Amino acid sequence: MDQPPDAALPFGARARHRRAVETEILSVARRHLAETGAAALSLRAVARDMGLAPSALYRYVENRDELLTRLIVAAFDAAATEVERAESRIDPDDLPGRWRAMAHALRAWALAHPHEYALVYGSPVPGYHAPGELTTPSGTRVIARLMALYADAAAAGARPRLAPLAPDARAAVVRALLGDASQEPTTFDPDLVLAGATAWMLLLGTISQEVFGHAGNLGSAAEPLFDASIAQAWAIVTGEN
């Protein structure tokens, strides 16, 4: 039986070699993501560009879906790290400053990595179903950071500004967003949940319009428009004009 190419190495060296190969796999896969798109991602093509036989690559990645999952987790983590780093530079009491820092960090990451942004926040990949147990921890890091900010704003007296919504529709939306946690009113303020979700969708929508070129050639107007959008989103959360 063939052994993996690192099988004869000492344990520490073998682990380092495996990490290096896995890092290269993701690097080559990202290039293919940019060139051909997620739907056309192929382990055989990745192996060819790495100078490996497909059978050798399968020792590190089981199939295309596993490779997509790794790319998704890495993208979520990269975006979240930038968002967390940006917020950490702001005075914790400067709530709007924290919001602006996180929003701009996510936009900057998306513009620098449009194909990875599209993978995690764009159209689903046909035939692929993300395993939630693997993608959710990374995929909710930014949202968790934002929810902590929204909670700080509520503690400081902010009152979300929401359009009237029928009670049954309001309850249905909160249940959809929170699942079983929607039954814990002392933990989750429904208005805060709705306002936070609205602000998040406005943030992602504004970024997506720019990343995917749907807003036209904005040029120097892109950043002022983004600032106006996130200011409106923050006003929804806080009720401020």
From TrEMBL:
Alphabetical keyword list: DNA-binding, Transcription, Transcription regulation
Transmembrane segments: none
GO molecular function, one term: DNA-binding transcription factor activity
Cross-referenced InterPro entries: Homeodomain-like_sf, HTH-type_TetR-like_transc_reg, HTH_TetR, MT1864/Rv1816-like_C, Tet_transcr_reg_TetR-rel_C_sf
Record flagged with keyword Transcription regulation: yes
Coiled-coil region(s): none
HTH tetR-type domain span: 19-79
Residues in the DNA-binding region annotation: 42-61
Protein name: TetR family transcriptional regulator
